[in-house]
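Continuing the series of single-chain predictions for the mutant panel. This is the parent chain; the variants come on the following pages.
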Amino acid sequence: MKKEKELENLIETLIRMLGKSNEKVSDLTNRVNQLEVILRESLMPMYHPIQEADDKVKLHSVGGRFIPH
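Parent structure:
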């Protein structure tokens, strides 16, 4: 009876350890995915497909003079 109880305790302990290990792997996977998204966003500039045309002429300064953009 004592060996059965010890074996039961051992199995329960192993199950808990495995559960914690799986949680850590899951957390690590989530962190890696987050880092991949952050890296991808930082390396790729924001892409803006066709924007609505603006009737106003945009100007920028070159050598102190404003010229159409």
